[in-house]
Amino acid sequence: MLEAITKSIVIVIVTLTGCATMTWVERKIVARTQARYGPNRTGPFGLLQPLADALKLLFKEELIPARADRILFILAPIVAVTPPLLLLGVVPLGATVNAGGTQVALSLTDINVAVIYVCAIASLSVYGVILAGWASNNPYASLGGLRSTAQMLSFQLPQALAVVGVLLLSGSMSLNDIVLRQLATLQIDGKDVGVWFIFLQPVAGLVFLLTALVETDRAPFDPFQDDHALIASYHTEYSGVKFALFFVARYVKMIAISALGVTLFFGGWLPPFANLLGGLWERIGGFSWLSPLWFGGKVLALLVIMVWLRAALSRLSSDRLVSWGWKVLLPLSLLNIVVTAGLMVLL
């Protein structure tokens, strides 16, 4: 019990710290892309800017509309931030390490139906969005909540189907088993060769990453939160700490979906060329204490790509985005399942 509580606290602290860091990284990357400096006044290189933002929101006046549903209005941001934190509970953050003679797994838990758990928990984030819009008793917030919900539902199904290809190759729903399967994916001349699933399932990986951008409401895939058209969408009436929770929820979701994508398609905590270097990684600890660094580096790479796409691309229109999800990504993910299953039977 103590070990589980300790791991939970560490995961929450690391994730929230990562959220604060990502706000600084995003501002810097976008600023450099647009030939600006970005944060550079608060602390060295602007590193204390996330702390300044947090303090500002912490002391900002809390407002609740007179005709709002107070219980649901307060509950909505909590519902929004909780599911992505729960997702990180089943993601293997590293290999099992030896700590003082005790084998410690660098994950909160490993369940044999983790993929089903992930799909179930991820779908709960929709409720935070729709509750925030409806509880505000604001027609613009309600409209923004409904449109954001339509967007999320349009891309959750292709995202879930994209994972099926990985399940077919791994033969397991345990995320730890999926990582280890990428250590011995193929047999060449009687030797196990590890191949990341992104190379065996490029279509599924592309669909997953594209849907992840939409699921996290990342520009340019966030037309339902276009400030020029819908003010601030479903969180129009929120301020102070409650608004901060929605802000944090978006970045926690970015981290959680990136961690899940790394686990499914990019070898998780495995180092590159894990079993092609004659045991090099084992000798230098690449499978133990260095494994969280490999995992964190891959997650950071995906987060930077998300930020770069925001800076590089213009926002899509809402009708095109939803149509693209149903008419392109859904058939593509179904076709990938059929082709993958067919090749496995033939080969």
Concise synopsis of the structure shown:
This protein is mainly α and 347 residues long. The protein has one domain.
Produce the secondary structure layout:
Elements: H1 2-33, H2 49-58, H3 70-87, E1 96-99, E2 102-105, H4 114-123, H5 125-135, H6 139-170, H7 175-181, E3 186-188, E4 191-193, H8 197-200, H9 202-215, H10 227-230, H11 240-265, H12 280-283, H13 291-312, H14 318-346
Antiparallel strand pairs: 1-2, 3-4
Describe the structure.
The chain has helices at residues 2-33, 49-58, 70-87, 114-123, 125-135, 139-170, 175-181, 197-200, 202-215, 227-230, 240-265, 280-283, 291-312, 318-346, and strands spanning 96-99, 102-105, 186-188, 191-193. With 347 residues, it is mostly helical. The longest helix has 32 residues, at 2-33. Helices cover 64% and strands 4% of the residues. The protein has 14 helices and four strands. Strands 1-2 form a two-stranded antiparallel sheet. A two-stranded antiparallel sheet has the order 3-4. The chain is globular and about 65 Å long.
| Global structural class | mainly alpha
The figure for the number of domains is 1
Supply Rg.
21 Å
Order of strands across the main sheet: 1-2
Approximate helicity band: 55-70%
Largest sheet: 2 strands, antiparallel
Q: Which regions contain 5 or more consecutive residues with pLDDT less than 50?
A: none
Mean pLDDT: 83
Instruction: Give the strand tally.
Output: 4
How much strand? under 5%
Distance between the termini: 46 Å
Succession of helices and strands: HHHEEHHHHEEHHHHHHH
What is the overall number of helices? 14
